[in-house]
Amino acid sequence: MLRQILGQAKKHPSLIPLFVFLGTGATGATLYLLRLALFNPDVCWDRNNPEPWNKLGPNDQYKFYSVNVDYSKLKKERPDF
Question: Topologically, how does it sit relative to the membrane (predicted)?
Answer without folding.
Answer: Single-pass membrane protein
